[in-house]
Amino acid sequence: MRKISLIIIFALFSIYSFSIVKNYKEIKYPPLKVPEKVTPEKIELNNGLTVLILEDHELPVVSGEIMFHAGSVCDPDGKEGLSELFSNVLRTGGNSLMNGDEMDEFLEGTASSIEASSDDTSISVSFDCLKENFPKVFDLFVATLTSPEFEQQKIEIAKAQMKAMIVRRNDDPKAIARRVFSRRIYGLTSPFSKQAELATVSAITREDLIAYREKYFCGKNAVMYIYGDFNAKEVKKLLKDKLAKSLKTGEKAQLPSKIKPEKSGIYFVQREGVTQSNIVFGNLVKMKKDNPDYPAAVIFSRILGGGFSSRFMKTIRRDMGLSYSPHAYIYAPYNYYGFFMGAINTRLNATGKVIETALSIIKDIQENGVTEEELKQVKDEFLNSYVFQFDSKEKQIAKVAYYTFYGYPVDFNERFFNAVKKVTNEDIKRVANKYIDLNNLTIAVVGDSSKFDMPLTKFGKVYPVDVTIPGLKEMQMKRMQMMKMMKEKMKKKGEKVKKHKVLKKKKMEKIKQKTSSK
Asked: What is the pLDDT of residue 295?
């Protein structure tokens, strides 16, 4: 019986073995299934606010987000950091319904959230809650937008946190290199290079925050979406009764967009005591996401420096062992020009060699293009992963809201998806030559030049960069003086206490003597 069982098992195993495909390339995959498309209802309130609504009863949750055209490009000169401080305090500073601490307690107790954030060209406020808490959370959301309190105590806390970040911004050489690079790419006088400093954060007042909200928080300057378990008819009434009446109409903000790159060359920051060089290089790219070359730029970026199978990773990491995570890509925002950027960190005595190698890899693609195998592999990888950006209804409505906000067609993702499928080797070669100028690169290097393998002048004119934080020494001196004053004050207090104890002891001895004499 046991022998028969073994024969049957062997026979089944043999059949299974013959069914296995010997070459992985022969495996046939079913066509990629694109997630079902959803179409949110679009309405415009009396105050000009565009709202996208999608009712979905799958889960008992409701979420939403409103985006305003604003951001750090709008920070006034001398008050850089205003947008960041505004988004930090907008929610934590309370509103006409609850103060900041009460909101913290309510939101935490109901597993809800209301959050604000900002970037270069926008400020967004979002909410998320269970269906049962939606009416109350929505009231707080509206009050946050229309009647924030900006409590002074919360402003001071947020300022202290921002200043702490400024003080520490030179701790990471990698961050220094990226900051030096981006500010030279857009130009030091560009609104895209605005940088908060200790003095500018100190200069911001509560009145500045109130004026900022008044200027940018208006219906025509925003797009909103709301998604989840609700009745769409009731939500539309809620929006009209509460948000349309309390948020003014206003106008769409015209954001500053000046870009004037600094001279190309090597921008060098000397850092003694470090063991590695941090290198960031590239150039301004006149491309936004709606550029016809954007799909090819995305695939080019993946092939050049976008993962473990990229040319940067294969050559610089695997073959040469000079860097752990070299990468490169073309960055294209929605509403302003982006850049090409490569970033590599390596040992000091390989700095020049790494730069040479990276540039030669780019040059090879510019001259010879890429292989069909590379192109097919990267396109398949990208397309197979891209659908996960839209694998839920909430992700889809959020994307449609972003497209509406930035003036893109609502089916932009489908157009982009189909365009990626059509990218050819010639497209990759053309994009590499059109958008990367190897003769006029901006290269930021942070490291110890005394240990470099070759002078940086080999790659262009070197411009030393001083990254000293303005006002830091004065702040440290003031802090030291305060510590000294506190120490002296404590010393005097200690001496006073000691003197008091001595007097008390003498007094007690006198009392004791009088008592004993009686």
From this structure: 98
